[in-house]
Specification:
The protein contains 17 helices and 10 strands. The protein has helices at 17-29, 42-48, 52-65, 108-118, 138-165, 185-198, 223-243, 264-273, 285-297, 299-314, 316-320, 337-341, 345-352, 363-370, 373-378, 381-389, 391-411; strands at residues 5-10, 34-41, 73-79, 93-97, 123-125, 134-136, 171-175, 204-206, 251-254, 278-281. The model has no long low-confidence stretch (mean pLDDT 97). It is globular, with a radius of gyration of 22 Å. It has an 8-stranded parallel barrel, surrounded by 6 helices.
Length: 412
């Protein structure tokens, strides 16, 4: 089952599962139980030509090789009603993504019924631990309905489809993060009311937070504003678990959580202060560690990553458009192909590795390469052979990244 603390670990090419899990083994030796959750989305499967069964296979084999005796899960990441079917036999964690349904307004007749059903929430709302009082009017209630009612309705359809075909335990996450405007703590309160009313036993909720959560790079935004919002979200969840029919283990989930080093001390302190759980997805970080390891290995490994960059650079729009809400890359600021071709392995790895103390580090370069795994997939067996040939070198980077940069500052 999903533990109090859990970490999503994507692995684009299903080669680093053992090295990922070794980071959790290290944490366990220090007394911290963290549930590994292997996650992969429909988009990622389609891009690399893999299937949901491959994630289950990788997770099970990694657990066996590491003699891991604690819980672990496989996440059908960002599934929709159109894409959930193929994941059901192999997943026991389902990230239900209904961001595209947010803002689908109610009809006039639906609005009337909605107001009658939820009118008793109108008034002042006090939540223990939050200094301010929230005011809910008929106008704000209707605004909430127009934003979120149909998104939650879609969540229910997806959940019911899973439940019809999935036997045994599975965790449910509802994701509303891939939108432009963050949800306020009061909106989270209302979303949880709707989820409770719908009868969805949601284990984790992934709202859109204040600030930029770009893929693979640090947080950009107002730290004080994030801290206030995050703490209020924790308190809203605690309030709703007590007042409404929601699972007792309900916790916040942070998407695009990789490398948000500025936020980790804040998150660590607040989840301990309020005795809360947390789920955080690191996703594509492991893919970048593979590139770093190949670059450092030199020889054909370095030539492989240079060729990936060159091909990706020529297909910039194709690769970046699907990630437009979670990256900020200026092509004019990227190094030219001939420049990268002149680099030694250490220069390539230092430019890519997220070490802000290193003058070579380039967040533009890092975000761009985050989107370029499609090029590696197109190289087929040649790329996989390089991963296998340099497995030990890459693996060390993968384990250190997950443990030292993520687990340690977040949970220990």
């Amino acid at each position: 089952m999903l533990g109090k603390y859990s970490l999503g670990i994507g692995d684009r090419f299903a080669k680093e599962g053992v090295f990922q899990l070794e980071a959790f083994v290290k944490a366990k030796k220090l007394g911290k139980d963290i549930t590994p959750v292997w996650n992969k989305s429909y988009r990622e499967h389609k891009t690399v030509g893999s299937k949901p069964s491959s994630v289950r296979k990788e997770a099970d084999e990694s657990v066996a090789k590491c003699s891991w005796k604690s819980g672990y899960l496989v996440d059908a990441d960002h599934i929709t009603i159109q894409t959930v079917e193929d994941f059901i036999p192999y997943s026991d964690f389902f990230t239900i993504d209904v961001a595209n349904q947010i803002g689908h307004e109610l009809t006039q007749s639906e609005s009337k019924v909605f107001l009658e059903e939820y009118r008793h929430h109108i008034g002042n709302l006090d939540i223990q631990g939050i200094d301010e009082t929230f005011e809910i009017t008929e106008e704000t209630l209707l605004e909430f309905g127009n934003k979120f009612y149909k998104a939650v309705k879609e969540s229910l359809l997806i959940y019911q489809k899973i439940k019809e075909k999935r036997q045994g335990y599975f965790a449910v996450e509802v994701s509303m993060d891939e939108v432009e405007v963050p949800q306020t703590p009061l909106e989270l309160y209302f979303i949880l009311i709707l989820l409770s009313k719908a009868g969805i036993p949601v284990n984790t909720i992934a709202p859109k937070f204040t600030g930029r959560f770009n893929k693979g790079v640090d947080y950009r935004g107002d730290l004080a504003a994030f801290e206030k919002e995050f703490e209020q979200d924790l308190l809203v969840i605690a309030h709703c678990v007590e007042k409404f029919d929601l699972p007792k283990d309900l916790k916040l989930s942070i998407h695009s959580g990789s490398d948000k080093f500025l936020l980790y001390p804040i998150i660590n302190r607040l989840i301990k202060k309020h005795h809360c759980g947390l789920h955080l997805k690191t996703a594509g970080t492991t893919w970048l560690e593979e590139l770093i390891g190949l670059a450092e290995s030199g020889g054909s490994g370095l030539e492989m990553v240079k060729s990936i960059y060159a091909e990706a650079y020529s297909r910039f729009d194709e690769l970046t458009v699907p990630y437009v809400t979670v990256i900020e890359v200026d092509k004019d600021q990227l190094p030219k192909i001939e420049t990268v071709n002149s680099w030694e392995g250490n220069k390539f790895s230092e430019t890519l590795r997220h070490d802000q103390k290193n003058s070579s580090y380039d967040s533009n370069f890092r975000q761009f390469l985050h989107t370029s795994y499609k090029i590696a997939a197109e190289k087929g067996d040649g790329f996989i052979e390089e991963l296998e040939k340099n497995s030990e070198h890459i693996g060390r980077n993968v384990t250190e990244n997950i443990f030292d940069k993520h687990i340690n500052p977040l949970f220990i």
